[in-house]
Design a protein that fits this description.
Elements (H helix, E strand, L loop, with lengths): L21 H17 L3 H18 L3 H6 L5 H14 L7 E3 L2 E2 H27 L2 H12 L9 H31 L9 H7 L1 H24 L18 H23 L5
Antiparallel strand pairs: 1-2
Helix pairs in contact: 1-5, 1-6, 1-10, 2-5, 2-10, 4-5, 6-7, 7-9
């Protein structure tokens, strides 16, 4: 059930993508997200999709596991597609059936591909980067903000803990659901309101469990004399290698294609 939500989970492997600098992966993801929204044609999205497929192949993450990441947001994708099919309008329309037009179908497919590439790229980052590496990368990227007394380390630590708690809380929710189901609870039948009401016995113990885990984590950090001092050393120092240069070069080629298609190409409709 909730275990199908894969965001925040780490897939352990020794791959080209896993060994990339986390700072580079964060920056490339940010650029990828921006260009996904900048792309206005299937050709532009195709160049980004090819880059994403290459990254998945070199990450050694099973393709089926990547596809599973879409299961949790499948409803959002379908809802977006349906809305665009019935409500997308253009000046010139080719009606195929009832109020469904050719232009609306094309635009709906474009939006679906855009959402899929966006979600899979985000999931790939968490699959190939440990929470500790993500924390180090975010902290390093935000380090210039220390000049204005911005709490860089604290923000990075909070984000890392949040990412680490996502799979933990999902597994906890699954265990609670299975325990409630064994006691006769029904989470499948009924309308949307009945299903939402049936989740109340799950949310309350899950909330209590989350507070308990947070308190235990705080006690563990206190017992180890953890503090967010300004001068902290790191066991592993981040540094760029030849892999990062290769990944940057390949990504820049794909990004340049998107921008060129945006400038000189044709829009989706």
């Amino acid at each position: 059930m909730l275990s199908d939500l894969t965001f925040g989970q780490y897939y352990e492997a020794q791959s080209f993508v896993h060994k990339l600098d986390p700072r580079l992966k964060i920056l490339l993801l940010m650029a990828f997200v921006v260009l996904v929204f900048v792309a206005n044609s299937f050709y532009a999205l195709l160049s980004l999709a090819v880059l994403l497929v290459m990254a998945i192949i070199f990450s050694k993450v099973p393709p089926l596991q990547m596809v599973r990441s879409l299961k949790a947001v499948l409803f959002i994708i379908l809802f977006t597609v349906v809305l665009n099919i019935f409500f997308y309008k253009t000046e010139t329309q080719t009606v195929l059936f009832w109020i469904i037009t050719k232009e609306a179908l094309i635009f709906s497919a474009f939006m679906a591909i855009r959402l899929v590439t966006l979600i899979m790229a985000s999931v790939l980052l968490t699959y190939t980067t440990t929470p500790v590496a993500l924390t180090d990368g975010i902290e390093s990227l935000l380090s210039p903000l220390r000049i204005i007394k911005f709490p860089v380390h604290e923000i990075a630590l909070v984000m890392s803990i949040a990412l680490r708690f996502i799979p933990i809380l999902m597994n906890e929710a699954d265990r609670i659901i299975m325990a409630q189901t064994a006691r006769g609870a029904d989470f499948q039948s009924g309308n949307l309101f009945k299903k939402a009401k049936a989740m109340i016995p799950v949310l309350i113990p899950l909330l209590i469990s989350a507070f308990r885990r947070a308190e235990e984590l705080g006690d563990a950090m206190d017992s180890r004399c953890y503090s967010c001092a300004s001068k902290r050393t790191k066991f592993k120092k981040l540094k760029f290698t030849y892999r990062d240069i290769v990944a940057t070069a390949v990504s820049l080629v794909a990004f340049a294609l998107v921008i060129l298609i945006k400038i000189y190409g044709v829009a989706v409709i």
